[in-house]
Design a protein that fits this description.
alpha/beta; 5 helices; globular; binds flavin mononucleotide
Length: about 190
């Protein structure tokens, strides 16, 4: 059983990655395999609305997305993590959401999987971004466990999210609930 955390930050080793690793560690403690996938440095282009994916479950844009889509289909749990950029999820994670969402819309490979969002902000836009990510999980039929607060943490310079004790604890508890739900569903 595997959980993957997809980090939509442009910054390697940044706050979103730290928070995602923390959640994945909580999941690993429960015996699941985990993998972190960084979108930083990858070529993930936006959906061009060609509609080819509605005929066949793949995207004709030749970039780095399709191998990630295969990993998403193989995993039992998926976390989408994004920092807030101008009040919103990043362009990279939004491109991934749009294209994987449309590719899977008819075939429903994510229905019954477990997942949910993680968000990092400096100051504002976190609730909107959290909702943006939740829309994706909801429409695709994921089961989304909660935590002890909404999965949001604060940080700005690299590493400062580690000062947000409640944010870390929330991300940790979210990871525990992801693992618990996967085991209940698949164990
Ligand atoms: C282009 C850009 C836009 C940003 N816009 C916001 C914003 O609207 N609200 C906010 O609270 N933080 C904003 N931030 C700050 C980041 O969300 C914050 O630094 C976060 O910790 C970055 O995560 P990372 O270290 O994973 O890249 C922005 C940062 C960048 C680079």
């Amino acid at each position: 059983m595997k959980a993957i955390g997809i980090v939509g930050s442009s910054r390697e080793d940044g706050n979103t990655e730290i928070l995602t690793k923390h959640t994945l560690k909580a999941i690993e403690e429960e015996g699941l395999d985990t993998e972190l996938i960084r979108l930083a440095g990858l070529d993930i282009r936006p959906c061009d609305a060609c509609m080819a994916c509605r005929e066949e479950e793949r995207c004709p844009i030749e970039d780095d997305l399709f191998p990630i889509y295969i990993k998403m289909k193989e995993a039992e749990a998926i976390i989408l993590a994004s920092p807030v950029y101008f009040g919103s999820a990043t362009a990279q994670i939004k491109a991934l959401m749009d294209r994987t969402g449309y590719m899977s819309y008819d075939t429903r490979p994510f229905a019954g999987k477990v997942g949910g969002p993680l968000v990092v902000a400096r100051r504002a836009g976190q609730n909107f971004t959290f909702a943006q990510l939740m829309y994706w999980f909801h429409i695709l039929g994921f089961f989304m466990p909660g935590s002890t607060y909404w999965n949001i943490a604060f940080g700005h310079d690299k590493g400062t999210v580690e000062e947000d004790e409640e944010g870390l604890r929330t991300a940790w508890n979210f990871g525990k609930n992801i693992a618990l739900l996967v085991k209940k569903l698949k164990g």
